[in-house]
Fold:
Amino acid sequence: MFKKILIANRGEIALRIIRACKELDIKSVAVYSEADELSLHTKFADEAICIGPSIPKKSYLNISAIISAAELTDCDAIHPGYGFLSEKSEFSKICLEHNINFIGPDSSTIDLMGNKSEARKLASSLGIPIIPGTKDPLSDIDEAVSVANQIKYPAIIKAVSGGGGKGMRIVNSDDELINNYEIAKSEALNSFNDDQVYIEKYLQNPRHIEVQIISDKFENIYTLGDRDCSIQRNHQKIIEEAPSFNLKDDLRQSIYKDSIKIAKECNYVGAGTVEFLFDGDNYYFIEMNTRIQVEHPITEMIFSTDLIKKQILAHAGENLSNDFKNINSKGHSIECRITAEDPDNNFMPSPGKITSLHFPGGLGVRVDSHIYAGYRVPPNYDSMIAKIITHANTREECIQKMISALSECVVEGVKTIIPFHLKILNDLDYKNGNFNTNYINILTQKKETIDASG
Ligand code: ADP
Structure:
């Protein structure tokens, strides 16, 4: 078993991993930027090391500073969390070269799955449906136009190395494609250091459904149910639920089978997620995320298991067959991502000092957060300040519990997205499960129409 784990991350996920380490009796080392000196992860870990200034490139993305911190503190493993270096194959490789276990897949698996066009090719070669479009990166605009005319507009230009809902442009005509092609390439280069893009059909009202995978080093690969993450703003998830509502059993079994096929093909070890878009009863593979996801707690709640602990155990060489062979899910779980943003001002980030704080509690209510009264939300990072998770026997009860939990929540000093979440949770279409990835656009339009008509 590992003796000491360095957590190459910040915020709630750093705390979440520290908790798992404590329960496994493993020492933990926090790293922090100058902006995070007063962050809880620096206090709750056994040791804490400053790795640089607030700018991520110089701290949380600074591989040499993180490796030095791990060597200095004698860590035998690094947990990357999500975001930052979690899907950088170079980081996984460098950890290995320094005899430090990377709690994530090896660099070749990350390379394969992190490259969306390679991942599409692999899925397709296994007979798994992919969205019509190019498998290889586009060579020029003529090829882009020709493919778009074959698959028919609307189409979406996507960065081969894209992630986090960024690096995508929807186009409806040849003109729009021509106007956006170079912009998409230069955005991809700036954000992901890779200007390759590809094009696929844009599905207008799909559902985003994903499958949780966990596997060990003994070729045991398990699926831990599915999550519906269709409630998105700008292609970024804000509410997730498990299991997916109204998913036909044969389709559910089919995406589980396909997810296992993919994980098997790349000798996957640890926690991962295979993502699909559903267009009616047709589904398509979109990508595999080779890390723990933000929304992992909803799966933990319904399966009553600790995914981070199991992920650590898998990488430490434990056999997981006793944990997952006959595991069943129970009830329904929902997660609301709480961000410090102003929903009345185009979701403008709202950093600043939290002057007063009260989180909800009670049976089936979980809060994963790093904030406290007096904490200053820095402007330098993602604006997520908490995840509120509810668990109940039915979806209906779970929504009601979330409404009650959010109503109890007091966060003063910064604006939060909570009022917007409450609008969604009280909306009849949401309650009836009548939604897709376009839901928030429709909800906003509905509100504008009501406002305009007084
Ligand atoms: P990222 O890696 O940036 O998260 P994904 O490929 O996982 O990107 O897509 C994120 C979201 O973008 C999806 O959940 C979906 O809402 C939207 N999306 C991506 N591709 C398509 C597509 N072809 N048609 C419609 N929506 C898409």
